[in-house]
């Protein structure tokens, strides 16, 4: 998958998960995709102080990104 296609797929995944984050007062921004397999995002708004943000990151964000871009190995939140 080309870099542009990979970025577009990750952005599509974030658009899918965004309404759920927005409903709780949060949001998410793509920071970078490193080596074509490591995604860095920034959880924003209410998500920054939420006690379950790591669960949201793994169960929601990472799972959704991997659905659109299966080659992604890690998703990390950059504060």
Automatic annotation (TrEMBL):
Cross-referenced Gene3D superfamilies: Fe-S cluster assembly (FSCA)
GO terms of biological process kind: iron-sulfur cluster assembly
Residue ranges occupied by any NIF system FeS cluster assembly NifU C-terminal domain in the UniProt entry: 11-76
GO molecular function, one term: iron-sulfur cluster binding
InterPro entries named among the record's database cross-references: FSCA_dom_sf, NIF_FeS_clus_asmbl_NifU_C
Source domain of life: Bacteria
Family as reported in the entry's similarity comment: Belongs to the NifU family.
Protein name: NifU family protein
Organism: Flavobacterium aquariorum
């Amino acid at each position: 998958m080309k870099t542009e296609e990979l970025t577009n797929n990750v952005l599509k995944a974030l658009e899918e998960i965004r309404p759920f984050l927005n409903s709780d007062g949060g949001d998410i921004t793509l920071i970078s995709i490193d080596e074509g397999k490591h995604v860095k995002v920034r959880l924003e708004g209410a998500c920054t102080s939420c006690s379950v943000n790591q669960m949201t990151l793994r169960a929601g964000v990472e799972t959704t990104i991997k659905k659109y871009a299966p080659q992604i190995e890690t998703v990390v939140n950059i504060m």
